[in-house]
Amino acid sequence: MRIAYNSPFIPPELLAAHGAEPLRLVPAPEAGDASAAPVMGTCPFARAVAGAVIASDGLAAAVLAATCDQTRRAAEWAHLHAKVPVFRMHVPATWQTPAAARAYLDELRRLARFLVRLGGQAADADRLWSVMERYDADRAAVRAAAGRALPEARGGVPVAVVGGPVMRGHERVFEAVAEAGGRVVLNATETGLRTLPTPFDRRRRSGDDPWLALVDAYFGGIADVFQRPDGRLMDALVHDAADAGARGIILWRYVWCDLWAALAERLREAAGVPVLALDVAADAASLRQAAGRIQAFLEVLR
Question: Is 203 helix (H, G, I), strand (E, B) or coil?
Answer without folding.
Answer: coil
